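User: Sequence in, structure out. Go.
Assistant: Echoing your sequence, followed by the structure tokens.
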Amino acid sequence: MASEILQPFLGALQASLTVLLDIFYGVLAAQFGLLDDDSANAISRAAIKMFLPALMFTRIGSEVHLESATRYLPIIVWAIVYHVAAIAGTLAISRMFKLPAWTTPAISFNNAISMPLLLVRSLEVTGVLEPLTAKSESPSAAVDRAESYFLVFAMVANGIVFAVGGNLLGKNEKDQDDGENGPGDRHEDGEEPTEHTSLLPNSAVRAEERIGAKAHNKVNEYNDKLPPWAQKTLRYSSKFVNGPLLGAVLGFVVGLVPWLHRVFFNDTQQGGYLNAWLTSSLKNIGDLFVVLQVVVVGVQLATSLRKLKQGEESGPVPWVPMVFIIVARYLIWPAIGIAIIGAFAAKTNVFGDDKMLWFTMMVMPTGPPAMKLLALADTSGIDQTEIMSISKLLTIAHVAAPLSSIAVVGALKAVEMIGGSS
């Protein structure tokens, strides 16, 4: 019995250490001046706005079929239920014990993309996921399917983060894109080019601006005719719309339309005329996202530690909320996830017989708080002291990443017990 637990635990621990080392490489890059905070932020923006939508499209599109689409519905429901429960429960506890405002988003929003994707890839290497692989598929195919499950969960999580994350910090969010690609960034005739100068001919740039202005005015015209409640609903709903969501939606559309799925994802000999060049190129840039984001986490943590050492506003991390956050993120939520998903998998047929689906849904709530928490703090107008407190919290929480192995082992054993009894 001990060896049955020790073997997957060691495999999960190795996978968690791999994630920790990738973060450490980002710290080294910052330490030796290869990357700084500005370059890390630029990489992160490119990863989120370009690489992640490509990853969403290729992973989800390749895995979704008409016959398999229904297995993604429980993930969407689980993502909504988990985040609503996490926010409501943590808000109540935070107010009861007068914890800092950032405690709620730190517990409610975990690193739902890069960390679990890197973890599942490392688990594949250790062989821990072999019991979850169907007889008719390869381990790599099973991991691709697992990644698509995590990405659908992340799609919902991102929408909720962008919609309510700033409000949970108790401040008004500022627009993160203010000043980007605005009128002042356009290159007009006779002006010196800058990094914001469009590569298109000036005539094309002017045409683009005219079309954009007309479209903007038209939208405002229709919006002004709506009742106030409808305007408020649309404004709030627009927060959920982002590049990764569009990539995921396109992936679902292509996956569910047989001829589109064939053209994008089949072998060339089987009608996949776009696979060898367009889809492959999107896969290449999509695969960049996972490692780049984890390295950026390391750079951001190194930058925060450097500011701390230089004596910049250094906010304390109260030990009560810190322990509460780590215990909730690595123990409480995974335990709840394993119990709930395990009960549904054992007593109902809601999740079918896909063991990889059971496993991924069980571990989806685990992991350190999302690094978006730091970005939300930067754009929410909170004190620099609190931002440094959040930075130190994120550093400690990511160093504790090997604790994820507990949730991995618990989920593996739960799936084994359910699968053996079914």
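User: And one key feature?
Assistant: The longest helix spans residues 275-309.
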